[in-house]
């Protein structure tokens, strides 16, 4: 079996207005514990002719590093039944910082994550009719990583990920989101 990293997070709820209109604000911190499913040597080492020094695989579920994770969430609820006014919207921001390099010499860069989401209600009342439409945008930036103080060529990245979804719920059976 192959498992990825494990996370232990503590979150503190600063505000929560319950079922009323208003904010929900969380602050959190945690530790990311690496799994053993990790590359054990630099996959980019080459000889003078540009050939790979060792056979290797480019797949792993972990970078092998312990990291801290700091998180802030702010969301707002609005009980308006107007389908053009979001009923729920907000932002989650994470900063992930490696504590030290892995036992195999890899040090990933810092990671920044921002996720914005909006939920628009529908006015449909039938069981299993869509209750809302969600829109989102995620931003992920990873800084340069290093193998034994040498730059890892493919470690730096920046990506925007848009999303759209539909939410259904049933009073007795729960909810489903696509």
Overview of this structure, please?
- The protein has 178 residues and is mainly β.
- Helices cover 0% and strands 52% of the residues.
- It has no helices and 11 strands.
- It is elongated, with a radius of gyration of 21 Å.
Notable features of this structure?
11 strands, 178 residues, elongated, three-stranded antiparallel β-sheet, eight-stranded antiparallel β-sheet, mainly beta
Which spans of ≥5 residues are poorly predicted at pLDDT below 50? none
Task: Report mean pLDDT, rounded to a whole number.
Answer: 87
Distance from N terminus to C terminus (CA atoms, Å) equals 28 Å
Order of secondary-structure elements: EEEEEEEEEEE
The strand count comes to: 11
What is the alpha-carbon Rg in Å?
Answer: 21 Å
Q: How helix-rich are the residues, as a percent range?
A: under 10%
Strand content: over 45%
- Number of continuous helical runs: 0
Q: Structural class of the secondary structure composition?
A: mainly beta
Subunit organisation of the chains: single chain
Helix/strand layout:
Blueprint: E1 6-16, E2 22-33, E3 67-77, E4 88-98, E5 106-107, E6 111-121, E7 130-142, E8 146-147, E9 150-151, E10 157-170, E11 174-177
Antiparallel strand pairs: 1-2, 2-3, 3-4, 4-6, 5-8, 6-7, 7-10, 8-9, 10-11
What is the gist of this entry?
This protein has no helices and eleven strands. The model has no long low-confidence stretch (mean pLDDT 87). It is an all-beta fold and 178 residues long.
């Amino acid at each position: 079996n192959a498992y990825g990293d494990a996370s232990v997070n503590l979150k503190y709820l600063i505000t929560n207005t319950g079922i009323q209109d208003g904010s929900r604000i969380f602050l959190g911190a945690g530790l990311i514990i690496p799994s053993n499913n990790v590359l054990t040597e630099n996959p980019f080492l080459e000889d003078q002719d540009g050939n790979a020094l060792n056979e290797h695989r480019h797949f792993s579920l972990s970078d092998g590093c312990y990291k801290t994770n700091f998180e802030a969430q702010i969301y707002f609820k609005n009980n308006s039944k107007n389908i053009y006014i979001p009923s729920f919207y907000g932002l989650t921001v994470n900063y992930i910082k490696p504590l030290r390099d892995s036992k195999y010499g890899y040090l990933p860069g810092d990671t920044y994550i921002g996720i914005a989401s909006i939920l628009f209600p529908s006015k449909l009342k039938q069981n299993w009719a869509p209750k809302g439409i969600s829109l989102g945008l995620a931003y992920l930036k990873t800084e340069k990583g290093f193998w034994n103080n040498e730059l890892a060529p493919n470690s730096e990245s920046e990506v925007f990920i848009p999303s759209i979804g539909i939410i259904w719920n049933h009073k007795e059976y729960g909810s489903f989101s696509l």
